[in-house]
Amino acid sequence: MKAVLDMLKRKNKFEKMEGYSIFFMLIGALILASGIGLSILNTKGISAIMAMLGSVLAFFAMISLILTWLIKELIGE
Question: Nearest 5°: CA angle at 68, between 64 and 70?
């Protein structure tokens, strides 16, 4: 976690964006895991919403990370 927080303090905008993407993937994974864990108790309501929200957040963070890598390679920084 400390390595991700150190990435957020970088001066390069691409490395900073990578840090934010990785950070939001971790947050999405934690929300997804807690939603799946809560679905053991109740399959409806907040547990299903948390699982869906976590998966969507992790998915968009992964797309953001891939686009950041692609732009970084095309620009050549």
Answer: 115
